[in-house]
Write a structure and sequence with these properties.
Length: about 60
């Protein structure tokens, strides 16, 4: 499931992932792709189930 929103100050893209996946690998892959597409490295993933945020640069070295 994906949901998105965009406003003057920024935007969000909600992605729900279920199943037996290597979640850290998925986050690293998404971080690299987002940074390559021009998303700033200080943008964050908000990991709702873990109640924490992770900067893209911390996952991909951006």
């Amino acid at each position: 499931m994906t949901v998105s929103g965009l406003g003057q100050a920024g935007g969000n893209l909600d992605i729900a992932i279920w199943g037996d996946v290597d979640f850290p690998a998925v986050l690293r892959t998404l971080a690299v792709e987002f940074v390559d597409a021009g998303v700033p490295g200080d943008a964050e993933f908000q990991l709702v189930g873990e109640n924490r945020r992770v900067a893209l640069r911390s996952l991909c070295g951006a």
